Input
Amino acid sequence: MRTPNYLLVLLLPLLATACGPRAAYKSPPPEPALVETPQNDRAMYLDLLRQMQDQGAYFASLAHIDAFRQRFGDSPELRVLQADALRQTGENAAATQLYRSLLKGPQSASAWHGLGLIAASDNDLAQANQALRNAVQSDPLNVTYLGDLGFALLQSGDTEAARAPLAKAAELAPGNARAVSNLALWALLSGQSSMAEAMIQRANLPNATRQEIHRLAQTLRRPAAASAGPQPPLAAQQSASATALPPLPPGSMLDRFNPAAKPQELIQ
Output
């Protein structure tokens, strides 16, 4: 019967003492191959992969995903990370195949989200909207999914449909600059520039972000402007939009940023 390695490490110093000072023996450190891998190594490695992707190191993450699979095996969460990295490195066909293989499992929301982003990048807005709706339906509290659905709807020109998911995202994560920026963009496209500026100032967004919001608003207005002919002045657009929009829910974030709200409501 083979003696376990950890028992040898414990017994060797005792044997050295029993043999006297001349036979003193120092046990060598265990070789790396004999050291068991802690159970949390897998979770730590997955966190490392996510951090690499958050920092934009998608190619490096693909290499580490292969190493992870050799060490720990495959899993749905690993395939999602791989599909995300493939999408970010321009391998849309391979990413699509991986995402589709995950639609029936616990990672279905992430898979639908990835498929929606691929469809949006291909300018297939109808497919993008449907896939992102499926992602939100699977994970209703995910601020990223809500924001991306709202932005895709803005790209489709459906400003009113974009209102709810963008407002949900901003209220679920009021400190999230991206969520607030998307809602400010919606306000601009709805002709409510004062509301948009109030949101930007309240969130203390940097000037570069403010400029990007206005640039996107101009870009998203162009298709409608080209098909609808000359547009009325901005003030007229604001007035028309304000009367066309349905009443805002009392106490909502949109209501707090409404220019007609009382001053103390805007500084709470």
DSSP finds 15 helices and no strands in the chain.
